[in-house]
Amino acid sequence: MEGQFLSFGEAVRKDRAFVFPGQGAQFVGMGKDLYEQFSSARELYDRANDILGFSLSRLCFEGPEEELQQTRNTQPAIAVTSLALLKVATELSPELLAERPAYVAGHSLGEYTALVAAGSLSFENAVKLLRARGELMQAAGDKNPGTMAAILGLDIADCEDVCREAGAEVCNVNAPGQVVIGGRREAVVRALDYAKARGAAKVIPLSVSGAFHSSLMKPAAEGMTQHVATASVHDPLIPVVANCTATPVHDELNVRHELVDQVSRPVQWSNTVAFLGEEGVTTFIEFGPGRVLTAIIKRMLRKSTTLNVNDASSTRVDL
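and the corresponding C-alpha cells:
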C-alpha cells in the first residue's frame, strides 16, 4: 500500500502503544548519530532534504538554533528525527514489527508522525504537510500575535475559569495539574496573575511565536484545509488516538478532519494517556528527541513500563 512506512504482522499487542513528541523536543544535534551510523536513517534525512529543497539534516545536526526553532523548520525536523528513530529501532528490534501496537498517538505535530507509523500518511506527505503547517502557523502568529504559558498545580476547571476571566484559552491539557494556555499577550499575562491568585504552584511564560492550538490559529487551520484535502490519506492500519478528542480515528475522512481541527483546538494529551490506560495499555514506547511524553505517562500511569528511543544508543529496544 502506498504510504505504508512499516510492515507489521497481523497480530495486535494489546498492551503496547507507540507515542511521538511535538514541538519543544528539538535540539541542535538531534539525529546526527543516527545519520552517521545507519543507512536507513541517512536515507530518510536525504529524502526530506529533497522534498523540502533545503538541507533539513544540516539544520538538525548543526543549527543555527534560532533557525531550527522556527516552527516551519521545527515541525518537519522533529517528525523526520522521530521517524528515523522508529525505522532504525524496528530494524534492530524486529519483534517491534511482529505484533502491531494496539494504538499510536502523537502530541500536536507528533500526530503526523503517528499517522506515518500507522500507514495513514506517507513519509513524503507528512513532511510536505508539516512544512505547510509550520509556515501557516508562523504566518498566523504574525497576523494574530499571541503567546503561551504553562500553569502548574491547578486543575483543568480552574484553568478554564482563569482563561474565561482573562480572555485567554486552554491550548494543551498535558497532565493533571499541567496545562498550557494561550492567547493575546495581555490576556495571557492577566490569566497568569489570576492563576497565581488561585494558588497555582508555578506559572511559566513560554518563548513561542504564536498561540498554537487556540482560536488565533484559525487562519492556519483554514489554510491547512486545502493541503489536507489534496493529500493522499489512507485508513490507519493502527488506531490513532486523536489530539482533539482523545478517541481513536479509524478512517481517512476522520484523519482529514483531525489534521485541520488540531491546529486551532486544544491538545487533549492528558485524556489521551488516560484513555490508553483504560484500554489496557501498559507499555509505552516514545520515539523522538527528548523524553517529555514518557515523563507525563509515568506520572499518570505509575505502573506502566515506559521506554525512550531518542538517540542511536537507545534504538535497540529490549522488551
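(Above: one complete record from the training split.) The chain is about 50% helix and 15% strand.
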